[in-house]
Design goal:
Pfam families: RibD_C (PF01872). The protein is α/β, with parallel strands linked by helices and 294 residues long. The chain folds into 2 domains: 61 residues, no CATH class; 200 residues, Dihydrofolate Reductase, subunit A (3-Layer(aba) Sandwich). Helix content is 28%, strand content 24%. The chain has 8 helices and 15 strands. The strands form 4 sheets. A 9-stranded mixed β-sheet has the order 10-9-8-7-11-5-12-15-14, with helices on both faces. It has a two-stranded parallel sheet with strand order 1-4. A two-stranded antiparallel ribbon has the order 2-3. The termini are far apart. The model has no long low-confidence stretch (mean pLDDT 95). It binds NADP nicotinamide-adenine-dinucleotide phosphate (NAP). The site of NADP nicotinamide-adenine-dinucleotide phosphate has 25 residues, from strand 5, strand 6, strand 7, helix 4 and strand 11.
Length: 294
C-alpha cells in the first residue's frame, strides 16, 4: 500500500511566483497553470489536488493567506495591501524607533513573500529614515519589488540603502511641484512626482500616489509601514486588505500602529470581515477592506 505524498511550501512557492510573473506580463491566467496551482473560473487559484498527493498544513496556510493577492487579474485595477506588526498594546516600535524585531521569523518570511509577489513596496519617510531598510526578498526566492519611499518633505538622506545599493529600482515619491528639487538630489530616474500628493494645508493624499504608480504599471502595492503611513492609507479608504500581525510582547510607551479618526459610538466602528492565521508565536489578522475601498 502506498501512502499519500505530501508536498510543502517549497513545491508551492515557485508556482506562486509564476502566477505573479504571468500577471505582470499580462499573460492569460491559465498560462501560469502548472502542477501546484490550478485556475478555476469564479473561484480563482486553487491548490491542485491529485490522487495520492496532498499538501502539508504550512503550504495550505500560506496559500490561503496569499490567495487574495494571487487572484489579481493581469492588467487590473490597483490593489493595495497594508501591513503592521504590532505588540499586544498596539505599538510597532519602541519610543526611539527600534522595531527589530516586533514579530517572529515566520512573519518576517511572510513579509518577504508579499514583497516578491507585489509590484511595489511602499514605506513612509519615518521608516526609511529610522530603519534604513533594503526592502528586498532576502528570505525567499523571488524578484525584488520596486521600492517606493514616500518623502513629501524631501528630508531623507540620499545615502539610504534603498537609494544607493542598486539591488532594485527605487522611487522617491514627492509632490509633483517638488520633483525637480528631488531629481537634483537622487537623479530624475529615481523620482516619482505625484500630482496632488500634498494639498495646500500640507495633508497627504494616498489615492494620487496609487494612481501614479498604476500609470507606471505598478498595480499590486504592498504598504509595509510605518504606522502613520498605513493609517493614512486606511483612513483614506485606499487599502483593499490589511495584515495586522500581533506579537506576544508589550512595548511600553512605543510608537503607535493604527492612528485613526475618533468614533463616538461602537455602532460606527468598522468591523471588516477577518481571517486569523497562526504564524509561529504571532497571530496575523487578515482584514478584508474591499467594501470600503474607493
Ligand atoms: N512593526 C512594523 O510592522 C513596522 C513597519 C514599518 C516601520 N516600523 C517602525 O515604525 C516607525 C516609523 O513609523 P512612523 O509611523 O513613525 O512613520 P512612517 O509611517 O514610516 O513615516 C511617516 C512619518 O515619518 C515622519 N517623517 C518624515 N521625515 C522623517 C525623517 N527624516 N525622520 C523621521 N521621521 C520622518 C513623517 O512626519 P511628517 O508627516 O510631519 O513629514 C510622518 O509622521 C519606525 O520606528 C519603524 O522602525 C514598524
Amino acid at each position: 500500500m502506498t501512502g499519500t505524498r505530501v508536498h510543502g511550501i517549497d513545491a508551492l512557492w515557485p508556482d506562486c511566483l509564476a502566477v505573479a510573473h504571468a500577471r505582470r506580463s499580462g499573460d492569460a491566467r491559465q498560462a501560469a497553470h502548472d502542477a501546484a496551482l490550478v485556475y478555476a473560473e469564479g473561484q480563482g487559484w486553487q491548490l491542485a489536488s491529485r490522487a495520492g498527493q496532498g499538501w502539508d498544513d504550512e503550504a495550505c496556510q500560506v496559500f490561503e493567506l496569499l490567495k487574495p493577492l494571487l487572484d489579481r487579474p493581469p492588467g487590473g485595477d490597483s490593489w493595495v495591501l497594508g501591513q503592521l506588526g504590532q505588540s499586544l498594546n498596539g505599538c510597532i516600535a519602541t519610543h526611539g524607533g527600534d522595531a527589530n524585531f516586533v514579530n517572529g521569523p515566520e512573519v518576517l518570511t511572510h513579509l518577504h513573500r508579499l514583497r516578491a509577489l507585489s509590484d511595489a513596496v511602499i514605506v513612509g519617510a519615518g521608516t526609511a529614515a529610522l530603519d534604513n531598510p533594503q526592502l528586498t526578498t532576502r528570505r525567499v526566492p523571488g524578484p525584488n519589488p520596486v521600492r517606493v519611499l514616500l518623502d513629501p518633505g524631501l528630508g531623507l538622506a540620499t545615502t539610504l540603502k534603498a537609494l544607493s545599493d542598486g539591488q532594485a529600482p527605487t522611487l522617491l515619491a514627492c509632490d509633483a511641484t517638488r520633483a525637480a528639487q528631488a531629481a537634483r538630489r537622487v537623479g530624475a530616474d529615481q523620482v516619482l512626482g505625484v500630482e496632488g500628493l500634498v494639498d495646500a494645508q500640507g495633508a497627504i493624499a494616498m489615492a494620487p500616489l496609487v494612481a501614479a504608480l498604476h500609470a507606471r504599471g505598478l498595480s499590486v502595492l504592498f504598504v509595509e509601514g510605518g504606522g502613520v503611513t498605513v493609517s493614512r492609507f486606511l483612513s483614506q479608504s485606499c487599502l483593499d486588505r490589511l495584515h495586522l500581525s500581533v506579537a506576544p510582547v508589550v512595548i511600553g510607551g512605543g510608537r503607535p500602529g493604527l492612528q485613526l479618526p475618533l468614533h463616538a459610538s461602537m455602532r460606527d466602528c468598522p468591523r471588516p470581515p477577518a481571517r486569523i492565521f497562526s504564524l509561529g508565536q504571532d497571530m496575523l489578522w487578515d482584514l478584508d477592506l474591499s467594501a470600503a475601498r474607493r
